[in-house]
Structures are given as C-alpha cells and as structure tokens.
Please model this.
Amino acid sequence: MSHHDHIASHDAHAHGEGMDKKRIWSVFFVLLALTALEFLIALGFVHHWGILQKGTLVNVIYIILTLVKAFYIVAFFMHLKFEKSGFIITCSIVFLFIIYFIILMLIEGGHLNDSFTHQPIFPH
Amino acid sequence: MSTTVSQLDKVKEGPWSGGKSPWNLEYGKIMMWFFLVSDAFTFSAFLIYYGAQKFAQPTWIDADKIFQSIPGIAESGQPLVFVGIMTFILIMSSVTMVLAVEAGHRNSKQEVVKWMLWTILGGLMFVGCQAIEWSHLHHQGFWFGRNPATGLTDDNAIVQALSPYFTKEVSYTAALQFSNLFFTITGFHGFHVSIGILLNIIVLSMTLNNTFERRGTYLMVEKVGLYWHFVDLVWVFVFTFFYLI
Model:
C-alpha cells in the first residue's frame, strides 16, 4: 500500500509540471480559434460569400481542423503528451484499425453509391 | 521472524520485471484510458457507419437546412449558430475541468470545488441544449424510425414533406437513415454527458467530504477529468460530421 501511495504521489508531482493555468488557457484559445475558423469557412466562405463550394475540398479542411482539435484535447487536456512514450503508443496504435475500417467503409460506400445511381433499388 | 528475504519476496529491478511502474501511472488511471480507447471504438463505428451511409446514398439531408433555428430567437435562417453555442459550452466546461485537475495537484480543495461546480453547470447546460434540439427535430417529424414523410402514401406529398431539408433530389431512405443515426449518435453522446455529470457530482461530494484530503491525492478528479474530456472529444467529431460536412 505504501508503495502504491508512492506511485500516486510521484504521478501527481510529475503531472504538476505539464499543465499550468497559463498553458490551459492558451490551449483553450487554440481550440476556440480552430472552431471559429470552421465557422468562418462554413458561414462566411461557403454560406455567405460563396467563395468556396460545399464539396471534397471543404470537407477535407474540416476533417483536418477536427483532427488538430482532437490532438490538442488528447495531448494537453487529457495529458497524454506528458505520459511515457510506451503508454502513448499503447493508446494510439490501435486506431490503425479505425483507419483501416474507414478505408473499407468508403470503398463499400462508393460501390453502393455506384449501384444506387445506375439502378435505383429504393422507391424514393 | 527471519531477517533474510526469500528470492520471491525480493523487490525486483528493471522497468518491466515488476516492483516498479513502467508507465508511472496509477492503475485506475490506466484502466480509465483503456475504457476510453474502447469507447472511442464504439463511437468510431457509429460515425463511420454514418459516413458510409452518406457516401453510399446519391442524395443526403442538407445540414444547413435541417439545423437552422435558434430556440427562442429565430425559427429559421441561422445555420450552425445554436450548435456553435453548444460546442462553446462543452469546450468551456472541458477547460474548467482541467482547471479543477490543476487545482487538485496543488491540493487546493476550495478551487477544486469551484471548478467542479462550473463543470457540472456546463454539462447541464449542454444536455439542456441537446434536449431543445431534439424536441425541435421531433416537432418537425424526425424521430427513431420516422421522418416527416412517414405515413404519407402520395408521391407528391412525400416530396413536399421532405423538400425543405434537401438541396439535391429528395430521398425517403436518406431522410430515414439520417433521422435514425442522428438520434442514435447524439443520444449515445448525450448519455455519456449525463453519466459524466453524475460522476462529476459524485467527485464533487467526495471533495466536499474531504475524502481526497484524507487520501492526500486528488487523482480521482483526474480520472473523471479524462472521461469528461473524452466526451468533449467525441462532440468535436459529432459536430464536424453532422453539422459541418
């Protein structure tokens, strides 16, 4: 038990170095700025001024911005960046399966889209 | 009795041979991470299925047309504004959660209580907004297994019921898929937020009861914090795939 307490207190100490108040607020402003940028693209460039069209390009921009936001939340708010590299790898490598799944489902969806477009099987 | 230590009881050396924590993390925190990784798989599966459906259908509901009201202010013509407020509330409550964790590192009970209260308030506001959004869509005729054209038999009536939500051609199937997936995914997320609020309230009352003060560590705040940030993380993806794309 005393050993366990030692780990816990050491853990708490190590974490104190990672995020102080100043850093927390700077991460918050990064997240806010990225969200504001998404709104600027969606409401401004696409909806209001019509500079960009809805489509692959805009979607890719949205997904990249989303992944950057996800990185900031996981790395700083969830503190993963300051953990041991072995733990970072353990928690992130499994998402290779998700990437594989996305590719599979896009291929599948593309194929279905082809068949729906050429010979509609649904009445409406 | 004896002062000699048997071979088995000796504290082992080396990072991976026991006697030392190679990740330097407390057990409960590692388990919380592993739970969140598995939960991320569940949400990924939901969202990937949504994406695959949308990709497969020749036409899909236009997010700008279905989400364009601000409850109590504008009935239509304001896409993204209400969900923007919801996103801001959730990011803000994530920040107050990190501030609670940071206060826990300094063993400052008062600050932990203050930031936990703000976090709980943010969570309740988010769930409230979600409820308003749901009831709005429900009034328009969307629900599990239902869309505004359900029950209509005349082709023209179906097109008329659905055309306000589509930019391209109208599809009953696409509207139904959208309806089911929207309520399933945001419902599952809202369920997570509700559980998170409950956990936050439990941790808040433990803080008020000096439980962590006696333990000497506020690790439990960190574990609940991990869960709360995960809920925020999922919302970032839900927001992109439902409201932006």
About this structure: The CA atoms of residues 29 and 223 of chain B lie 6 Å apart. Chain B has a mean pLDDT of 91.
